[in-house]
Specification:
The chain contains five helices and nine strands. A five-stranded antiparallel sheet has the order 1-2-3-7-6, with no helix packed on it. The chain has a four-stranded antiparallel sheet with strand order 5-4-8-9, with no helix packed on it.
């Protein structure tokens, strides 16, 4: 084996070691609040993962939309639990070489405390990118969002990047169960995102 191949294998082993080290040691259900030790754990998680691409960092909370055959609406969503928000703040600060202040962490926790928040990125035909309906489903119940923010960038080939930030009340949600975030566009295309809350922090 050449020196170049050995070096490449060593680098991949180091990356794999970082990824395995960042995986949760056991399944943990989503918590809507964090203790001081959990906040420290989340911050450390984000800071240690700062060299990884966002998709790797957020894999624990990220879900791809399930497309039907022939459907053009696609996208991904990630659950912004309190743990995920603090970890993301740590990841962003370390990634940019910035210091993270205690007030920044408090603001992150205040924004999502005792609620379920999701950030959704959609790719949609521009003619159907104006109106979206969002709900959260679990065990036969449908929960409507208490707040939705929307942004959009038009891309090439008559497609649009649409960004949705959705907040749901969590009183009726079983945090040990699975929820389905459902996005419906103006044409009636459905894009569900499945989140097993029992396997996320």
């Amino acid at each position: 084996m050449s020196i170049c191949s050995c070096t490449l294998l060593i680098r991949w082993a180091m990356v794999l070691g970082v990824l395995l080290g960042l995986l949760p040691q056991q399944a943990q259900a989503v918590s809507l609040s964090l203790s001081p030790s959990q906040s420290e754990e989340a911050l450390r998680y984000g800071q240690e993962a700062h060299a990884l691409p966002f998709a790797f960092f957020a894999r624990e909370w990220r879900a791809e939309g399930i497309q039907r055959p022939g459907q053009r609406l696609s996208g991904a969503a990630w659950l912004q639990s309190p743990f995920a928000r603090v970890a993301h703040a740590g990841w962003t600060a370390a990634h940019r070489g910035l210091a993270l202040k205690a007030m920044d962490l408090r603001r992150q926790l205040k924004q999502v405390g005792h609620r379920l928040a999701f950030a959704v990125t959609l790719v949609s035909p521009t003619e159907h990118a104006e109106t979206y309906h969002v709900n959260l489903q679990q065990a036969g119940q449908v929960i409507t969002p208490s707040h939705v923010e929307r942004g959009q960038d038009v891309s090439e080939r008559e497609m649009a990047w649409v960004y949705l930030y959705c907040i749901f009340p969590a009183e009726r949600v079983d945090l040990q169960g699975t929820v389905i975030l459902v996005v419906t566009d103006a044409r009636g295309d459905l894009l569900p995102f499945v989140f097993d809350l029992s396997r996320m922090r």
